[in-house]
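Batch manifest, entry 17 of 40.
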Amino acid sequence: MADYKGSHLLHLSTRKAKKFLDSFDTVLFDCDGVLWTVFEPIQGANMALQLFRELGKRIKFITNNSVRPFASYRQQLLGLGYDAEEVDIIHPARSIVQYLQARQFQGLIYCLGTENFKATLRQAGFQLIDGPTQPLPESFHQIIATVHDDAPVRAVVVDIDFNVNYPKLMRAEMYLKRSDDCLLIAGASDKTIHVRDGCDIVGPGWFVEMLEQAVGRRAILLGKPGYHLRSGVVQEYGLDQPGRTLLVGDMLEQDMAFGSLCGFQKLLVLSGGTTKEQMVRATNTLQEPDYYADSVADFIPLFDKINDL
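Output type: C-alpha cells
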C-alpha cells in the first residue's frame, strides 16, 4: 500500500491542503455512498456541504440512481441543509431525456426501468411500452407469442429494473435485432450496487452487457462513466476548465473513470462501495483517484487545518 500514489486528504500538509482547496471551483458529488447510504446520511456530510458553500464553491450532484424522483432527492438534501433545484442533480433518466431531445428523437421506446424512471421519460413527451410484468407459463411457445410483436420500437432503454425478467430481455433483444437503427441506450451501468456494509446486490450493468453481446453493438451510455454523458455535463455546467472541478465519488469504475474521462480532479471516499484494498489493487489507471478519504467528514478537519494558517 505504501506505493500507492493517491494522497489521503488528512495526510496533506497545511500548505498542500490549502493549495488543493484553491485548485477547484466546482464540487461534483456522487450521492449514494458519499452523502448517504440507502438508509441514513453519512456522518459529517451536512457540515462538509456547509463548509464548501462558505468557501464559495459551486456544488452540483451526479448520480447513477434514477430510482427516486427529484422530490425525494431534494428532501434528502434538505436534511443535509442543502436546498437543491432540479438542475443541480444529474441522473440517467434526465440525461437520456436531454440526449433524445437533442437528437429530436421521435418514435416508440421499449424501456426496462423503475416506474419513476419511466415517468421522467413520459413527462418529457416520449411514448413508452414495457413489460411483460406478470409471470408467464413456462412454455417457449407461449413466451415467444407474448414477446414477439410488431411494435415499431426505435429505441431500447435499460436502467435499474427491480422486476427485470427473462421475457423482458428477450423482447429487448428482439427489437434491437429487428433493426440496426434501433437505439440501445443505457442509464446506470453499475454491475454492483452497494446497499450497506456486507450487502451488495447485482446491478443493471450485467443486463446491459448481456444485450450488447447478444446484438453485437455497444450501448449509448448516459450514466457514469459514459462518454456521451461527459459532453452533457461539461456543457450544462459550463466546465470549460475541467481541471478546476473536483469529483467526489465512492466507485472506481463509475466515478473515478468518469472523472478521468472528463479531466476532473478525483477524490474517492471509502464510505460506500469501494474498500481501500480494492482501491490499491486496481490496475486501470483511469480508475485511480488523485486523493482519497475515509468519508466526506474528512473535509471538516481539513478545513480546520487551513483555518489555522
